[in-house]
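REQUEST FORM: STRUCTURE PREDICTION
Request ID: SP-0412
Submitted by: Lab K.M.
Chain count: 1
Length (residues): 788
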Amino acid sequence: MPQTRTGRSGRRSKREDPRSRAQKIMLRYGWLLPLAAIFVGGGILMLTYAFASIPLPRDIETPSSAEVFDVHGRKIGSFSDEITRFLIDTEELIEEKPFIAQAVISAEDRDFYEHNGVSVRGIARAAWANLTGGEVQQGGSTITQQYVKNAVLQDNERTVTRKAKEAILAIKLERRHSKKEILGFYLNTIYFGRGAYGIEAAARAYFDKPAKDLELGEMAYLAGIIPAPESYQPEDGQPAARGRRDRVLDLMVGEGYIEESEAEVGKQGKIKLSEQAKLATRNRPQDAAYFMEWLRKEYLYEEYKDELYTRGFKIYTTLDLGMQSAAEEAVTANLTEPTDPQAALVSMTPAGELRAMVGGKDFDNTLKARGFNFATTYPGRQPGSSLKPFTLLAAIEEGVSPRSAFSGASPMFVDENPLCNNSDGSPWEVDNYGGSSYGTLDLVAATTNSVNTVYAQLVAEIGPEVVADTLKDFGYKPKFGEEEITPNCSNALGGSLDVTPLEQARAYAALAGRGALPEVNPIRYITDSDGDCVKEYLPHKGSCEQEVGNKNQPEQMVEQNSVDVLNQSLTSVVTSGTATTANIGRPVAGKTGTTQNNGNAWFAGYTPQLSTVVWLGYPFEPGPDGRFATECGLKAKGEDKRIEKQNECGADDFIPEMRACADPDLCRVVHGLTGGVTGGSIPTDIWADFMTVAVEDMEVASFTSPASYPGEILNGGTSTVAPGLDEPEPSEEPEPSEEPEPTAEPSPSDPEPTDPPTFGPDPSPSGEDRSEPSDSPRRRFDRRKALR
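STATUS: Completed
RESULT:
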């Protein structure tokens, strides 16, 4: 046994562990690190105080609004039509109208005359309100700090260092200028929205009058919107705008500036913009107005707020101005009469990059774009048969072959699955469009001709919960007011959901992408006025070098081969089914959809490179006065899609131009279509006109052929024909359940009423019974396994 070496003392000699040495150093000198940090930080603040200059209002450069560019770098527009600022003698103004200063102080800095630039009480008050979940009456920054931020720092960065600099400079400003001067600086420079900087510009932008003519209620409104001007515009909802005004008036009473009776007078009536003010800043046509307003509301304002109007951002989007122009032209060319239905179009790539958006017929009117966007506004409209592909996809994923055959009789009671029964327990009765009846069809033929009774049997076979899960997987939202998509059998026919064209375009983009669901990506990247990167949303070669990662990459939702099989089925809709006018000379797949009384008509079609959805329909049911509610009305009423009490939103929140047909029969006659607009008529025409232009410079691409055709071949269910009817012979000239006539006349003895494209290889040798199941068991795609 080897001996251990020992020192003179007889103790074992051991080499000291470097980690132990580092720990000893930290124990001995670690306390110096916080002191060093304090010393360095304090030094930076002292230098800031000593050398930073605070410009006066006349020396501040006028801010610039954000500019928006398309995917090719062409300018689309900006988020403010005109930046205005007027420097006035605020001391004289405040002497004449003291409530102007009082309103701002009450709303933004009640301790203004007591602090030295930083309000400890204000910070504590705001912090306590945030911690307790209460409503923040005002933020922690003083009027002095806000001026410093706008004049010197000019950003919304939220860091300790940033706030410390703001506080130091505020103290410096307070020591060099009087309170009256600082209040004047603030009133001449603060942003009020609508491109207006300073109280004089705001008075003109909103009320078309000089600041000295403002009334108490008007000034209270302007003071109330300072924290987030674009969130409280009168056009966007009177309750929110009036709420800001009334709260400031109450604060002024609490501070002793005005009497309760004066506040009550100021609260009377709505906030009325002058007609000249409306025309000056809100009603100017610009390119892609619906897209611009949706982009501002849904993607930019929450993150950047008023920086959109001050920092000169350059926002590079995925929109294609050429495609946008083609989309608008397609709508215009096909809807030429004032009484025509409304329309919407959304087009995006399989990666989710938005190429075109039309939210209504008035696509060049910014004011109307602010009101209601039919392409995006939730809760949307009933989709009709345009949801059928996702029922077929769910069946394929469950191991059902598209060669499975079912009866196409109509009407039909579907009673195989209790979940399909009516609420009273009676069987679900289903009709085909126009009462058309067929013999036995496989699922491809049933999709080609949009046969409701076949799909009703299919959802009963696989279960409505499977269809609901698939719809959720592909981005569809629950019905308005519900938390989950209810597993109703009618989902297979599109009868119990409301969807938007944007949702549809995204879901169909996933089909174009072989089952990979994309995020909606309208922005590529944003830079500031100097070209420095602000944020990158999609990878690109340019000034932004941030790591985007996979957060905006499509997510595979089902087996690719399942979607390949589905895509092959949906091409027959275009080649020989309900959407033959969508045949643009290259591979196209898609599905039409029409709801009861022709209230909504859809065509959702795609090539391997581009998904485009077109909707036509009439607005929501009118309120008691015959006018339709805007988004404010929708939120007030909820699921009923209508405002309950008109005074909750005000007359400005209704759109009188959106008329419905008083006579349902008259609604059905559009451009001579006595049967009404269906998915295969005008929507498909608009789609074809747009896509012909949109894809003309793209290579002709084919859908991926399925590697296999797995699944069990079902030979029909046991559903019965409606009582008193035998399985009917098809009429002499049967109609499919959508608009075009079938390409071949069906007969009861034929398994298919049309002659659709060959669906893959012959499933069995000649003479083999089609009812024999395949070797493939039913299975469900394991997304977690696929993503590993």
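NOTES: The chain has three domains: 82-283, 319-403+442-518+554-618+664-712+756-788, 619-660.
Reviewed by: T.R.
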